[in-house]
Amino acid sequence: MRPPQITLFVAAMSLALAACSPKQESPEPVRAVKLMTVGASDLNVQGEYAAEVRARIESRLGFRVGGKIVVRQAEAGQRVQAGQVLAEVDVQDYALAAQAAQAQVIAARAQRDLAASDFKRYESLLAQNFISAAELERRSAALKGAQGALDQALAQAQTLSNQAGYAKLVASTSGVITGIEAEPGQVVSAGQPVVRFAQDGPRDAVFAVPEHVVGRLKLGQKMAATVGNSGQTVQGQVREIGASADPVTRTFSVKLALEKAEALPLGITMSIHAPQLAGSQTDAIKVPTNALRQEGGQTAVWVFDPQTSTVSSQIVQVATADGNDVVIAAGLKAGQQIVSAGVHVLSPGQKVTVYNASPVPTSQVK
Predict the structure, then answer these.
(1) How confident is the model at residue 131 (pLDDT cuts 50, 70, 90)?
(2) Domain total in the chain
(3) Are residues 65 and 184 in the same domain?
């Protein structure tokens, strides 16, 4: 029987030898990736954009005086005619102020009439040499002062009368109520929007274009638009191009003035067909955005080598965006294969397999 000391010694030596033996490194896993072949394609030679039909003139209407809204006759989607009352504010205070102004007019007119009567009487006395010319001049000045006070009272009364009339919000022309921004019982200030109003008349097709397209559009440029639900084609020309990009989408708004389109319903969808734009590229290299990655502050892609089944990093220069793709200005050539999915789990020289590669039928294996 082996003594316990010898058994412990043998166990310790086995552990020491195991610790000193070199560790076997596990082989790097082979990643499965999706590939795409880079090819040249046209960059927006024939553009098509989704647009919305809007009224040429759409404004937010509000009262010219402040007050509490007592009634609102207009509703969203309602068609109204010129002169139709849309809403009213409490007119009581304005009516009282107008009455007070009329009372001031009556008092000022009485003073003017009294001054005119005095002037005539003194004019007669001067003709009889009972008074001096200076006395008549004082009566003339008093008459002019009284006339000025009357004119001022009349103007003030007219202003207050107008304010009482402004208590009603009236449509200046026919159109459609497109939105409501204030409700009865709400106190509004002068000029605060109450309803959104689209006037009848010319229509615009409003659409957005990316950055690389906006510089190629020109005012007055002719385009065709197709109504989505009926297929009707309407001609138009560019009348307005946005001066700055939308902060979220980074696109520019464009308004296309439609010809003979007054009957088109507001808000319907149209497709704008832009002809070949000046400066369009016909051999642009485009890759999807998910194929790009950042490497040391630069943009790069993984290029696949079919001979070794490995990938290498390639720095590229991005020119612009085209929908969900980016246009490559330098760094890639047509015919190269790049990784389009799984770019963030690779390293230079790593072996990869092609995801969902089509297997060779067994009947063709010799």
Answers:
(1) confident
(2) 4
(3) yes
